[in-house]
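Bench log. Compound arrived from synthesis this morning; before running ITC I wanted a structural hypothesis for how (2R)-2,3-dihydroxypropanoic acid sits in the protein. Inputs:
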Amino acid sequence: MERPTLYITRLLPQPVLDVISGQYRVLAEPTDRPPTVEELRHGFAEAQAVICTLTDRIDVSVLSHATKLRIIANYAVGYNNIDLPAAAQRGIIVTNTPDVLTDATADLTWALLLALARRVVEGDAWVRTGHWPGWTPTQMLGADVSGKRLGIIGMGRIGQAVAQRAAGFRMSVIYAGRQSVSSPPGVSWVWRTLDEVVAESDFLSLHVPLTETTRHLIDRRRLAMMKPTAFLINTSRGPVIDEAALLSALETQTIAGAGLDVYEQEPVVPARLTLLSNVVLLPHLGSATRETRVRMGLICLDNIAAVLSGRPAPNRVA
Ligand code: DGY
């Protein structure tokens, strides 16, 4: 029997490619380079299944070529890069990769939080210059993490995983979300309004999907409500923060600092942001562990196998 045609927009970890090579006819040799719009259109025109990434913009101009396509398996938990109504209109199923990246993303959120509070990146850079003069009592003072208040905006899987880790730091946790979420044994958190969470947190961490409602959720007004000693951490999607307003807040020290894994116009990062010492900037590493990226690929393949054999997709989002 002929193998189904699969288009992969980007190079995936080798264990995932190994599984693919035995089961599918891969349309074009995947590389790390983002596909051009023409390449995307060609791939979508020829394939029965696609694995694409969060940086591929899958809009009507691409989907209108997809005459044989049955499933788009997005290699991400977020799927704001895909025009879902346009896919649904063409009968194309869209899936994502929830759960498998929750721990990796929560861990990275904590890496940013701790690095910011304790000036880890600045300290590392100083030692590397060879100019560190030795220990002094007033040198490179950061902020305590233990015992402080953590605010979570968006109490889904990742928000909860970040909140659970706070118990180890004896932090109090408040959160804003669409509904109240019960906490597991030994952990406690309190549901508050969005503005209360913004105003009362020492560390404010964002875990909402990007939608028209959450775009610029953290705007100039909310940045002004934050404590001047507070830190903002974003591992969700860049446009959830108004980046121009954040730049002013950081430059004028309206807030103490920001840890960012995501940006409004990735991969473009404003030069002004890179000049600041009260920020830690990462290149969208939320799910970037070897184990997680393999699991994400295997979930994409599970969903594709289900749809191509007429079974329901386990992780269908549209
Ligand atoms: C996702 O899956 O949405 C993450 O941002 C990938 O790192």
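What the model suggests: The two ends are 29 Å apart (CA to CA). The CA atoms of residues 151 and 197 lie 6 Å apart.
ITC booked for Thursday regardless.
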